[in-house]
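can u do me a favor
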């Protein structure tokens, strides 16, 4: 292998250098994963977010995104999938990396870097708190350009943030981001509202060309259900004809009729994702 026989300025080969190397000479951060899990409510009129109630310090009793520490012999993706299974019982769902959060003071315990993931599900499965989560529940989520509202009437929880747009520069590029301000007593733990914002921005940006919407409907669906997913994510209504032209090459009729789950839904033609699109997903 190239470089293994070369000697550095101290006269050491790579093997000799690695034998003497001491990882403790450098302070290292702990690495965690946190996952934003999104689905549609029963009548496709809005989105749901899955939160867990923390059962230990820090932020004990606060609602948070599911997550945990990455183990030594696993990838971040494997850790995110494992934590989902351990804390909520969910497995086998869409999971995509969003961003790395590395503010030095983001965790009061120690220096912790978190790799954030986005998960999408086609139905609201029953969840319960497991591992170190005291509880788990689905919350209504409303995300606009001015506000984030997260609520669960049964749990008596209302989490609300006002959003302010701010422009940042990266070299010659300019981009906008949302700056959240808490407006109530309940808050998400850690910097999880920032993870929510980044994940939602990524989904909005990609859903029109990456087909994530198909991960939020059942295998067989109606076009009103699929359109409702796009509209919930994008935050605005789509013209029926424009929407159908957009998905024309991505869907195939099953030959059956299906009662649409959308509000005041009626029987419609049933569709599924086209085989060529399924293979690419």
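np, heres the sequence
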């Amino acid at each position: 292998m190239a470089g293994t026989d070369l000697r550095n300025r101290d006269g050491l080969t790579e093997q000799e250098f690695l034998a003497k190397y001491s990882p403790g000479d450098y302070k290292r951060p702990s690495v965690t994963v946190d996952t934003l899990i999104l689905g549609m409510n029963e009548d496709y009129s809005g989105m749901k977010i899955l939160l867990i109630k923390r059962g230990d310090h820090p932020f004990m009793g606060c609602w948070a995104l599911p997550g945990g520490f990455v183990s030594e012999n696993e990838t971040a993706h494997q850790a995110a999938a494992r934590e989902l299974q351990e804390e909520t019982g969910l497995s086998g769902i869409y999971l995509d990396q969003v961003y790395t959060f590395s503010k030095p003071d983001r965790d009061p315990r120690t220096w912790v870097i978190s790799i954030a993931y986005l998960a999408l599900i086609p139905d609201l499965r029953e969840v319960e708190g497991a591992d170190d989560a005291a509880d788990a529940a689905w919350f209504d989520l409303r995300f606009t350009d001015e506000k984030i509202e997260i609520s669960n009437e049964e749990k008596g929880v209302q989490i609300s943030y006002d959003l302010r747009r701010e422009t940042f520069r990266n070299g010659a590029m300019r981009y906008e981001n949302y700056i959240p301000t808490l407006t109530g007593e309940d808050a998400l733990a850690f910097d999880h509202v920032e993870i929510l914002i980044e994940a939602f921005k990524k989904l909005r940006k990609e859903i029109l060309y990456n087909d994530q919407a198909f991960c939020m409907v059942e295998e067989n669906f109606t076009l009103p259900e699929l359109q409702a997913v796009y509209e919930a994510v994008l935050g605005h209504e789509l013209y029926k004809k424009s929407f159908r032209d957009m998905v024309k090459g991505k869907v195939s009729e099953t030959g059956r009729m299906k009662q649409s789950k959308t509000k005041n839904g009626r029987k419609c033609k049933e569709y599924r994702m086209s085989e060529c699109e399924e293979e690419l997903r």
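Residues 212-280 form a domain with the Arc Repressor Mutant, subunit A fold (CATH 1.10.10.10). hope that helps!!
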